[in-house]
Structure formats: structure tokens, C-alpha cells
Backbone:
């Protein structure tokens, strides 16, 4: 095969040169055809067989749970069991794997569509509609198939991982020692996979449409700066990119040398630089990269990928360990932000047409008060063992905040009665990530000790775009005048009320955006640990006057293009070396 | 398919919606209890009685004439039981 170039959206900087491996799972909406070779036929038929038997075990479990009175339901499940056990279905899928040499997912899809076409011809509407049962059953098998952990462990060398999509749950299971970079078909500039890639410090690209045509074992260059995958590169490419990879490593070691120095401008204005983390293990990266504490600890991960909910002691130990290891520096623990793309399976499937506007974060917690209280108790107990702050996400109004505070205080009283120690003056803050919260930030400021502006969601909700949807991700503009005005409004309202204002979105790690935030006199920023050294370096090399001047000009500009041009100009003239290695949220 | 050892019997399908999901499931389940090769035919189409998907795509509606064929050791018993099931309108005893 001759050289081809696939284009996607760069989300994590760096260069990787290696062989591809397609992860055998993804969203059920996009099944991928993969050609397999002789030695994988057995593996794929075995996966298929296992998926059928797991789906069967599942259905039999469900059947047992149906009360005897519900004969109709039992009959439906019985017919589904029969469809699942139908040798025609299973064998036809198996034969597709063997004869067409294709992956189990695609073979199943083929077998299903064969059956569907037989049904479509049926005249009797009632019987024809039974095709729905076939689909339901096929979906059960599919979810087993996709849910099966791909055997990354069997890889003998480090690979460039390709996948249809990587959910937050998937990315947890990534084993860094086997993956040098990854690329996905879906996703946009700020999708979760990118956040993970940056925290793992591996290059990554999302939104690569033609990825599914790439088979396993191809030599590729993954260019995380420009979002390109060069398939079957020639000698010149290999030379060029090997050199770039080396230069990037040099640059990283240069910025890392000074990462422990404070983020202080030449003229003496200091800003705190904290880290966003979601796994306890990342604490090491925070310390190594000169993070002055943890500005956002995402707590969802102890709730995902498991059958039962964590108990209070387990959460307490997690928070205690975190607080004590980062002490005397601060850790801001954000309460559960479950919902939207992070679903805890323990609550059963939640079907929401619009999950981003649905039951998530504090709304989810109010619906499950016991779960919420368990977490609050754990945080309060850990508060005496370090420098702990608590933060509530997705607050939309004063009433909602008061309701949450009421629950918080009832938990405190409960602990007091039981004579359990907690810090009575633990700082309490909220995320400002909804346009409604921005506009009433002056009112909200009276109720809390600090704000943290969550720009990822704020941009999404303000501009009305799904940040993971690649069709609209071009509209994701951090320097949109409405976003800049919102951020400025919140910072000013916070300062007016005498509280601290932080910012913890991806914007805080973007060299093009940080100068603007500095000009607005943000008190602290919180970003992925790996980006801290570079951002500190920019702040340390400039003056507050420069930042303010830039902000003034940007606020006067009427459109995004002009704002983007202004910041690019500043970065170009002042920090040209940063440009080479940073991916920015700002469009070229 | 039809050889000297094949038993064959015709029945009429009287249940309300014909061979839809539930009856098809019951029928396939019953057929699977026998070692004989059991076929169902209707309207010039012949399918495997042990496969629910086959039975469904036979699209036998209320009032259809069905033909049950079986060949193998337990063929007589198989034909008898399936015929009974159909004439009982798939009401499972017990």
C-alpha cells in the first residue's frame, strides 16, 4: 500500500511512530468492518460464541426475576431466549467470520441483516414486526461483544490504538505500557478521550472518519500536533517525524526544569496553578509537574466500572489519602458529576433524549440523596486530615444551591451528633458552568467561599453545541465574545464579593487563552498536570501590563476571528517556541 | 428431503395471530426435544421446525394449512406432539 494521510482533530500533542491495533469495541451505533487473517479466525469465532452465551445467561437471569403473574413478559423473554439459541443465527454469524474473514461484530451485523431481509418480505404485519425481537436479541449479543475487554494484554509490543470511540469507562482500562498513542473515529476537540490522552502524555487524534479502513499492523506516524495519521510513511516522513519527536522531548525537558517556580509575571503578579485529576495515581504527575495543589478532583471514577456502589469508608480512604499526600497544598473535591457521558450502571439504564440537559451532577445527587450523603460524609471526615475544599457542580440557581447546602448541613449535624470530626470551616465552592449561573454569579457569590469556572461545559451550554459532535465542534470557540464576557463577569462578581475565582476548563491549559485569563486577573487556574510547566513558562515570561493590553484589545473586537488573530499575534511574537508543540482550542 | 421414512401430517392453524413469536418459541422448543429432523411447510415454503427464526419467516397466519414432516427414530412421537400442540393452540399444559 502506498502512503496515505488521514486527517482528524488533534487533542494531545506529540509524535508516535508505530503499528496500529484496532480496539474491538466501540459505540453500538458504529460497527466497524475489519478484515482478519487466518490466525484470528478462531479468536473471533470464540468471541462470538462467548457473546451469545453471555447474552443467554443474562436473559435467563432476567427471566428468573419476572414475577409469575406476568405471563406475557415471560413469553416474550422465552421467545428471545429461543432466538438467541437459534443455531441459524449463531451459525450464520460464525460462517461469516470464517468465510469472509471479518471481525465478529461485522459478522453479527451481516447475520442480523440477512434475517431482517427475510422478515421484510413477510406480508402479515404482526409477524413481520417480530423483526423487532430479532433486533433486540442481536443488540444483546452486540453489547456483550463490544463490552468484552479487547485483549490489549496479549499485545507484545507497544501499539498505536485505534477505536470507534473511547468512553470515559474505556479509557480507565487503557494500559499505558502497551499504548503509545491513540486515534478515534468519533469525538471533538474537547472530548473526554483527549483529556485522558493529555494526562497520560500520549499523542491522540479524534474525529478521524476513515479510521475504520485501517487494518491492524500498519506502520503509521501519528502526528498529535496537526491531527494527521500518515499511513505507510516513506523514509523522508520517518526522518522528519523522528526529529520532531526528539525536539519535542527536548522542549519538554526545558520547560520541566523550571516547573517548580511560581507562576509570577515579570512585574510580580502571581497566580496559583493547580491541577485537574481524576485518578489517585495522578497525584505523582501533579507533584512532578509543579502543580501547587489540586484545583479539581473529579470523583466519578470510584463509581464507574463496578457492580456495587462504593461504601463510605472506601471513599473516605480515597479522599484521606489524596488530602494527606498533597498536604499542605490544597485539594478541591468536586462532588459527583455523574450523568451525561458518565453513567453509573448501578442505577440501571437511564434513557434520556438529551442527557447533557438531563439528570446529571447535583440533579442526579438530589434524586439519589443517600448516595450523595455517603459522599458528603466521606469528604467531611477527610477534611480534618488535610487542606480540603468541597465544590458542587452544575449549579443553576440560588434555590438549588440552598437545597444542596441544606443536605450538606444535615450531614454535618449528623456527624456532630455522632461525634465524628470534620473541619467546620472547610471552604465550599461551586462550579460556574451554566449561563444562568454566570448571570446571577453576584447572588451566588454571597453563598459560597469560591467559584471555579468550568469552561468546557460553559462554552457548550452558552453556544448551544455538543462538544463531542464533530459536525458542530468548529463552533466551539473559547474566545467567542459571549464566553469572554461571561468569564469576566464571573471574575468581577466574585472579586466584588471578596471571594476567590478559579478556572478549571481546558481553556486554562491553552497557551492562547491563558494570557486573556491573566488580563482578567483570575486568582488561580487548574489544568491537566502535564500542561502546567508550559503554562507557567508563558506566565513567567510576560508582564501583567502586556496581558491587560491584550485583553483590552480582545474585548473591543467584535468577532471571534479578530480575537483569535490578536492572541495568535501575541503568542507568535512573544512565545514562538510554544507554538510548535501546543495544540490549541483556537482554530487556525 | 422426503424419503420412505418421512412421516407427514397436515394441520390447520387456528390460533388468533398465526405463528407469531410466542407460538413459534413454543413450537421450536418442542421440536428441539426430538432427535428427528423436523420440517414445517406452508404455502410452498419449507423450514426447520427447530429454528424459531425459520418458523417466524414461514409467516403462517391464522387459518393457514401447515404440513409437519419428520424423519428419524422418534419421528412418530415428534409429529404427534407437534400436531397436538398446534391443535391445542399452543396452550401449554400444567
Residues:
Amino acid at each position: 500500500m502506498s502512503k496515505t494521510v488521514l486527517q482528524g482533530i488533534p487533542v494531545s500533542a506529540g509524535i508516535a511512530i508505530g503499528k496500529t491495533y484496532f480496539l474491538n469495541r466501540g459505540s453500538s451505533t458504529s460497527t466497524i468492518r475489519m478484515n482478519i487473517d487466518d490466525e484470528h479466525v478462531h479468536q473471533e469465532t470464540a468471541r462470538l460464541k462467548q457473546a451469545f452465551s453471555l447474552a443467554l445467561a443474562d436473559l435467563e437471569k432476567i427471566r428468573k426475576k419476572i414475577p409469575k403473574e406476568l405471563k406475557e413478559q415471560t413469553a416474550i423473554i422465552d421467545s428471545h431466549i429461543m432466538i438467541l439459541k437459534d443455531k441459524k443465527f449463531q451459525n450464520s454469524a460464525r460462517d461469516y467470520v470464517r468465510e469472509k474473514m471479518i471481525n465478529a461484530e461485522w459478522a453479527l451485523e451481516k447475520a442480523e441483516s440477512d434475517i431482517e431481509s427475510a422478515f421484510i418480505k413477510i406480508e402479515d404485519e404482526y409477524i413481520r414486526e417480530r423483526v423487532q425481537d430479532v433486533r433486540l436479541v442481536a443488540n444483546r449479543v452486540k453489547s456483550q461483544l463490544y463490552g468484552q475487554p479487547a485483549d490489549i494484554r496479549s499485545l507484545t509490543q507497544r501499539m498505536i490504538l485505534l477505536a470507534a470511540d473511547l468512553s470515559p469507562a474505556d479509557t480507565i482500562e487503557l494500559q499505558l505500557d502497551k499504548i503509545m498513542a491513540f486515534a478515534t473515529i468519533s469525538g471533538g476537540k474537547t472530548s473526554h478521550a483527549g483529556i485522558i490522552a493529555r494526562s497520560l502524555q500520549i499523542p491522540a487524534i479524534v474525529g478521524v472518519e476513515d479510521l475504520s479502513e485501517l487494518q491492524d499492523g500498519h506502520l503509521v506516524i501519528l502526528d498529535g500536533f496537526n491531527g494527521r495519521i500518515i499511513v505507510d510513511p516513506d523514509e523522508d516522513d520517518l526522518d522528519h517525524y523522528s526529529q520532531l519527536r526528539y525536539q519535542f522531548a527536548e522542549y519538554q525537558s526545558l520547560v520541566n526544569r523550571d516547573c517548580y517556580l511560581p507562576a509570577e509575571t515579570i512585574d510580580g503578579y502571581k497566580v496559583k496553578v493547580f491541577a485537574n485529576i481524576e485518578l489517585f495515581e495522578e497525584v505523582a504527575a501533579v507533584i512532578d509537574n509543579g502543580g501547587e495543589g489540586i484545583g479539581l478532583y473529579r470523583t466519578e471514577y470510584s463509581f464507574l466500572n463496578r457492580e456495587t456502589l462504593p461504601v463510605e469508608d472506601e471513599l473516605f480512604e480515597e479522599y484521606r489519602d489524596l488530602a494527606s499526600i498533597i498536604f499542605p497544598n490544597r485539594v478541591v473535591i468536586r462532588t459527583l458529576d455523574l450523568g451525561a457521558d458518565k453513567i453509573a450502571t448501578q442505577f440501571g439504564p437511564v434513557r434520556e433524549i438529551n442527557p447533557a440537559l438531563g439528570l446529571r451532577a447535583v440533579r442526579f445527587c438530589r434524586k439519589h440523596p443517600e448516595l450523595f450523603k455517603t459522599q458528603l460524609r466521606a469528604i467531611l471526615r477527610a477534611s480534618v486530615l488535610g487542606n480540603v475544599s468541597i465544590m458542587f457542580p452544575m449549579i443553576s440557581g440560588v434555590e438549588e444551591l440552598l437545597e444542596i447546602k441544606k443536605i450538606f448541613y444535615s450531614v454535618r449535624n449528623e456527624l456532630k451528633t455522632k461525634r465524628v470530626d470534620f473541619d467546620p470551616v472547610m471552604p465550599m465552592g461551586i462550579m460556574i458552568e451554566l449561563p444562568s449561573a454566570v448571570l446571577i454569579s453576584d447572588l451566588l457569590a454571597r453563598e459560597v467561599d469560591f467559584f471555579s469556572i468550568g469552561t468546557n461545559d460553559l462554552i457548550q451550554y452558552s453556544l448551544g453545541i455538543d462538544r463531542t459532535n464533530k459536525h458542530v465542534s468548529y463552533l466551539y470557540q473559547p474566545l467567542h465574545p459571549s464566553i469572554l464576557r461571561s468569564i469576566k463577569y464571573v471574575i468581577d462578581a466574585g472579586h466584588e464579593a471578596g471571594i476567590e475565582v478559579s478556572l478549571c476548563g481546558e481553556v486554562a491549559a491553552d497557551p492562547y487563552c491563558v494570557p486573556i485569563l491573566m488580563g482578567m486577573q483570575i486568582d488561580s487556574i487548574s489544568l491537566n498536570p502535564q500542561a502546567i510547566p508550559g503554562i507557567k513558562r508563558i506566565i513567567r515570561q510576560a508582564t501583567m501590563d502586556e496581558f491587560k493590553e491584550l485583553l483590552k484589545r480582545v474585548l473591543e473586537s467584535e468577532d471571534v476571528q479578530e480575537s483569535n488573530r490578536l492572541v495568535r499575534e501575541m503568542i507568535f511574537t512573544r512565545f514562538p517556541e510554544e507554538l510548535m508543540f501546543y495544540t490549541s482550542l483556537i482554530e487556525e | 428431503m422426503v424419503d420412505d421414512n418421512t412421516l407427514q401430517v397436515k394441520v390447520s392453524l387456528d390460533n388468533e395471530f398465526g405463528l407469531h413469536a410466542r407460538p413459534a418459541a413454543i413450537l421450536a422448543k418442542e421440536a428441539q426435544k426430538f432427535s428427528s429432523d423436523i420440517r414445517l411447510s406452508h404455502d410452498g415454503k419449507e423450514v426447520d421446525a427447530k429454528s424459531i427464526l425459520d418458523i417466524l419467516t414461514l409467516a403462517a397466519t391464522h387459518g393457514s394449512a401447515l404440513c409437519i414432516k419428520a424423519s428419524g427414530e422418534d419421528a412418530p412421537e415428534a409429529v404427534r406432539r407437534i400436531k397436538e400442540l398446534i391443535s391445542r393452540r399452543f396452550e401449554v399444559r400444567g
Notes: The radius of gyration of chain B is 12 Å. The helical segments of chain B are 21-31, 52-57, 75-87.
